[in-house]
Amino acid sequence: MSLPIIYVRGFAGTTSGINSAVDDPFYGFNLGATHVRVGGDAKPHFYQFESPMLRLMIDQDEQDKAYRVLVHGDQKTFLQSRADGTVDPMTIWIHRFYDDASSTFDWKPADFTIEKAADDLFELVRLVKAKTGADRVDLVAHSMGGLVCRSMLQQTIPDTAGAGPATDHVSRLFTYATPHGGIDFAVGGGVLEKLRDAFDIGDAAIFGPQRMYEYLTPDATRDAGGPPQGWDAREMPQGDGAFPLDRVFCLVGTNPEDYDAALGLSAKTVGVRSDGLVQLDNAYVPGAHRAFVHRSHSGRYGVVNSEEGYQNLRRFLFGDLQVEVRLCHLQRPGKPDDGIVWQLEVQLAIRGLPVLVHEQTTAHYCPVQIEWPAGDDSAETPVPLLTTFLSSRLRPTDPATGDPVPTLRQALRLRLISLRETGGVFHFFDHLEQTADFDDTLVVDIAPGDGSLAPRAWATWNSTIPGAIRDWQPDGDPLGDADAAAGVWQGDVALPDACRTILGPDAHLALVVTQRR
Fold first, then answer.
1. pLDDT digits (tens, 9 = 90+) for 488-497
2. Fewer CB atoms near the end CB (10 Å): N or C, the chain?
3. DSSP sequence for 269-291
């Protein structure tokens, strides 16, 4: 059964920004876009994206039942007026946590705090559960909204007597461009962060370690002296009652150039390894699922109002297959002190979509680093490349027959790049710019299976496919299952000879497909 969805918006700033935010009945999740960057020409192309909220309603309607938004003048009053279990679970709700802090509703507005927003979110979650009869809800959050959700999961629920574990209330959490590790700057040597936190400039001290520790830590474990040495705001503690990392997805934007807040000053201050406001390393929870897309924090090319963001959201919430790709038995080329830097670019396309759903490249400052094994790691320790989600219900239709195509197809492009470095300085005497040591695309077709039949997969490197990929049809036996566990299927794919010459004779990709409920 599809669950109710609650959207949680991001930071609005001071009173003027809050007043503007509360004027929108949907807190911005109804905003779409018309611009997209295509190819390498950097020219804006027209592409109409309806908004994540409207698109969800339209797409789910194709499954014979639509999500609806039930406002009726005041969504909370509407919910409170209905008897328990009488509201359709397939509904979308907006957590309007800024209303009490707006001066347009009260000449003396309440002070906004993350803790209060998290407490109010838990109240809304329980109200939606009661009125819809759903056992849990899904949370979808942008920017600071993800911190509100985490505060509820990590502090409000543990501090509420009789609340039970967080998984009794929330099924999944999806965050767009959330500063899970706070907001840091690439300039100033830490001085800007200290000034912001000391004087709460722009009400932005909530993105510093002291305040984050206060609203992300339950009473029972919070130290009055502040965060302990080594505390990492990105970490979501695990254990009894904690929210599992497997139920969290973090979408990371990699495009700072198109974030024009503060006349572009924000992007320049935060640096190139960011979405213009949140640095890449701060935009995810370690151990949670994540994907990188070339989108900015918000605006015309924002991550929320994008096809890339929506497709990741939809598949994470409704997909019935989880697909992990790992690089196994890697033999790092050369020697530890040879000064060669190896980087792997990873791009993932899904048949039927006009965008890449995952993209880690050197041009976007986020390739997969091929490092020498450290600590207890060995050549047998897999290098995780990506995790994505697929839905057997979302297969494109064959225009000739009108039937869904038999398999879910995805294409994984890998480019291996090397550069010589000595003493932190790159040397170019033997370098060929934009030239990869290895470049190929793995085309994977997955037959989803059902309760009696396990998933099956066929995989072929593009370099061996004659003609266009679109015309290729998998044949022969599927990949063998290397994992005997029920509900999990693993297929191993050898790298092409050219790549194994570099990464080792036994280097291969492991495709791990897990059926989800």
1. 889 999 999 9
2. C
3. HH-SSBSSSSBGGGSS-TTSEEE
